[in-house]
From TrEMBL, chain A:
Signal peptide segment: none
TM spans (from-to): 6-27, 59-82, 94-119, 139-159, 188-212, 224-246, 253-270, 276-299
Membrane topology designation: Multi-pass membrane protein
Protein name: High-affinity branched-chain amino acid transport system permease protein LivH
GO BP, one annotated term: amino acid transport
Entry GO MF terms: transmembrane transporter activity
Pfam families noted in UniProt: BPD_transp_2
Localization annotation: Cell membrane
PANTHER family: ABC TRANSPORTER ATP-BINDING PROTEIN, BRANCHED-CHAIN AMINO ACID TRANSPORT SYSTEM PERMEASE PROTEIN LIVH
Family classification: Belongs to the binding-protein-dependent transport system permease family. LivHM subfamily.
Automatic annotation (TrEMBL), chain B:
Name of the coding gene: braC_4
Keywords attached to this entry: Amino-acid transport, Signal, Transport
Keyword Mitochondrion: no
Family: Belongs to the leucine-binding protein family.
Superkingdom field: Bacteria
Organism: Pseudovibrio axinellae
Pfam family, one: Peripla_BP_6
Signal peptide: 1-22
Segments forming domain Leucine-binding protein: 27-373
Gene Ontology annotations of biological process type: amino acid transport
Protein name from the UniProt record: Leucine-, isoleucine-, valine-, threonine-, and alanine-binding protein
Length: 310, 410
């Protein structure tokens, strides 16, 4: 019982963090058709900005300032980088963002050094909230949950209930018509790209001190974010949400299962000390998202809720 | 004087001074192949600084047999394949000694590559100074003449820890957590067999192997330990895997003894904080609060003032000074002879005599079990806390039999 409760809680938090990251990616993809390979780099920038800003302004200002700064960087990248390459087709964009990811990583190494920085949970949130089955539950995790849910609700409201959301949705499917109606579609694109980057930045701000803020953090989480977007269906926000939670739960549940192959497939008579029999489910946890990716592409290439095949 | 003679004299003077200079300036290059970036970069960087400091000690007292020592860092990103590329790069730069420690998987690849290189290039051999890779196989099944290990291996440290565990009657169950590679598996196997042998009543309530340097949040693992109701945790984790583990244990309020190899490693004491007092234990050849000479205290202060880092590896100094002694005895860079000198060498370390056992090239040195405490003279990472000795294991008592069948060059 306690295993399930803990796995659910941790899975939920990890899943929501993944969603915050992948929502921006999937938004950008559905709007501009750009698969932003550098998306996780904006997540890393968010964490580093929050670390640096936090030293002078404190965590709470950094929580708002850092995503705005990341969004501004994103806007510049779109305005002076992607927009020019856009005319040349998708391969150019893909290569551009791929290169950008490396450039950002190297810049981070030059500015903040090659090692992890001491970006810590703020003292006001560094206490345990409640005790559950003998384990204390840190308040910061609940705070992350709160931020993620607020962001989720805000995003939903913005897209579904406001005029801006209406225009964004319209430019997704009918960019020319929206442009003929007098809206500046390139500027909308730039804003969406900036907003997507800011969301990644925000997840960096709250994820950087929960996990570790180091130059390799973008490359360690980047592949998982792509898995989320593909499993959820390219361009589908709802799909990304379901896929994030699915992967969050899958990974944390797998870690909490101690059984090995010999026990699960006991009918096959596997030797518990053998190479195959001694593999435990928990040791498979890091691989599971990618297994899901491969299976999804084989069985349902458009993802859970995606609309287009690719 | 005819012009020709002046020219000849000055030329021969030039050649003479050239040859004198080259004899004087022959530098002993030690290639340090360890992670200098990435998640384990801090660990590799810390080791490099110890080597640099030890080299500056030796250089300020005239070098090794008059030859200055230079440490050259190579970033292997803790990847065995990358290490072999860096090894080749080091050889091309004229390096004759290789130092490495982080990752037994890397050490295993290097020791094979160095043995092969030495076989194919007589007269151009290399010596491998292993200062921290502790998979027992390196001085047992995989031992070779060119590899010298200056750290006590997994089974030796585990024997010390389990001897201590034998007297802890209130510990009735343990959980074993280690990294999923050769070292972690050796750690788990040693823990299981020695606990079963010395305290058959202790229940091993769980074991987990986790991917190396991939886990950023250990909370699910800590919650598994809490659910399993473990009275103590045994872990071989090091560097970020250690500090993130104690960070998660701290956040989850998991207040049981953690018996570790690397609890004092860089970053971990900061992550542990007050809640780990009296609970985190380590078995090492060194911590800053062992009673010692003024000279050694001056060395610690010198290291800390230069690098703003706590001293952690006494064994790096041991390795460098033993190498110094061997080179002095040989008087030149004759590598097979230097290896022969190192074999069986005894050396007076600040913490007692150490011996490089000839049969397997495993250093026998005193080991200390120590606990994270607030009652200390020298703290770590400016936390106000440090390590305090619980027990001393003499060098002779750490010795374990070896299966090594060393093949020596004829």
């Amino acid at each position: 019982m306690e295993t399930v409760v803990f796995a659910l809680l941790n899975g939920l938090i990890y899943g929501l963090l993944l969603f915050m990251l992948s929502s921006g990616l999937t938004l950008i993809f559905s709007m501009m058709g750009v698969l932003n390979m550098a998306h996780a780099s904006f997540y890393m920038l968010g964490a580093y900005f929050a670390f640096t800003l936090g030293q002078s302004t404190g965590f709470w200002f950094a929580l708002f300032l850092a995503p705005i700064c990341v969004g501004a960087v994103g806007a510049c990248v779109e305005r002076w980088g992607l927009r020019r390459i856009h005319a040349g087709g998708h391969v150019g964009e893909l290569l551009f963002t791929f290169g950008l990811a490396y450039v950002i990583e190297e810049l981070v190494k030059i500015i903040w050094g090659k090692f992890a920085v001491a970006y810590e949970v703020p003292a006001e949130l560094n206490f345990s909230l409640f005790e559950l089955y003998g384990a204390q539950y840190p308040a910061y995790r609940m705070f992350m949950l709160l931020v993620s849910i607020t962001m989720l609700a805000g995003l939903w409201y913005l897209l579904k209930r406001t005029r801006i959301g209406l225009i964004i949705q319209a430019s997704l499917t009918h960019p020319h018509m929206v442009s003929h109606l007098g809206h500046n579609v390139p500027r909308i694109f730039m804003l969406v790209f900036a907003a997507g980057c800011a969301l990644a930045g925000l997840s960096g701000v709250i994820g950087g001190n929960y996990l570790v803020t180091e130059p390799s953090m973008a490359f360690s989480i980047g592949p998982i974010v792509f898995v989320v977007v593909v499993v959820g269906g390219m361009g589908s926000l709802a799909g990304a949400f379901v896929a994030s939670l699915l992967i969050g739960f899958l990974q944390t549940f797998a870690i909490s299962i101690d059984a090995n192959f010999a026990e699960i497939f006991s009918f096959a008579g596997l030797n518990p000390e053998g190479d195959l029999g001694r593999i435990t489910i928990s040791s498979l946890a890091p691989m599971l998202p990618f297994m899901l990716l491969v299976l999804m592409l084989m069985l349902r290439p458009r993802g859970l809720m995606g609309e287009r095949e690719f | 004087m005819p012009k020709g003679i002046v020219w000849k004299i000055s030329l021969s003077a030039f050649l003479l001074s050239g040859s004198l200079l080259s004899a004087e300036a022959e530098t002993i290059k030690i290639g340090y192949i360890d992670p200098l970036s990435g998640p384990f970069g801090t660990a590799g960087d810390g080791g490099l600084k110890h080597f640099l400091h030890a080299a500056s000690e030796i250089n300020s007292s005239g070098g090794m047999a008059g030859m200055p020592v230079e440490i050259v860092g190579f970033d292997n990103k803790i990847n065995p394949k990358e290490s072999l590329i860096q090894l080749q790069k080091a050889i091309d730069q004229g390096v004759r000694f290789i130092a490495q420690g982080n990752g037994s998987s890397v050490a295993s690849a290097l020791t094979d590559a160095i043995a092969k290189h030495n076989k194919r290039n007589p007269g151009d051999e290399l010596i491998f100074l292993n200062y921290a890779a502790v998979d027992p196989a390196l001085t047992n099944a995989k031992c070779n003449y060119w590899h010298f290990r200056f750290d006590s291996h997994v089974d030796m440290k585990m024997a010390g820890l389990t001897d201590w565990l034998r007297d802890q009657k209130d510990i009735k169950s343990v959980y074993i957590l280690a990294q999923d590679y050769s070292f972690g598996r050796a750690f788990t196997a040693a823990a299981k067999s020695m606990i079963t042998e010395k305290r058959p009543d202790i229940q091993i309530v769980g074991t987990a192997l986790h991917p190396v340097a991939k886990i950023k949040d250990f909370t699910p693992y800590v919650q598994k330990m809490i659910n399993a109701k473990a009275d103590a945790v045994l872990t071989g984790n090091w560097s970020t895997d250690m500090s993130l583990l104690v960070k998660a244990a701290n956040a989850s309020g998991h207040n049981v003894p953690y018996l570790t190899f690397y609890g004092g490693g860089l970053g971990a004491p900061t992550a542990m904080g007050e809640s780990a007092l009296g609970l985190v234990k380590q078995i090492t050849e060194f911590h800053e609060n062992i009673e010692t000479s003024e000279k050694q205290l001056a060395r610690m202060n010198g290291f800390e003032d230069t690098y703003h880092l706590d001293m952690f590896y006494q064994r790096v100094y041991t390795a460098m000074h033993m190498l110094d002694k061997a080179v002095e005895a040989v008087g030149s860079l004759d590598i097979p002879k230097i290896a022969g000198e190192l074999e069986g060498m005894t050396y007076e370390s600040p913490y007692g005599e150490v011996t490089m056992r000839a049969e397997d090239h495993q250093l026998l040195q005193p080991l200390y079990i120590s606990t994270f405490s607030d009652d200390v003279e020298r703290d770590v990472e400016n936390t106000g806390f440090g390590f305090k000795t619980d027990a001393l294991i003499s060098a002779a008592a750490t010795a374990l039999p070896t299966t090594c069948k060393m093949r020596r060059p004829s």
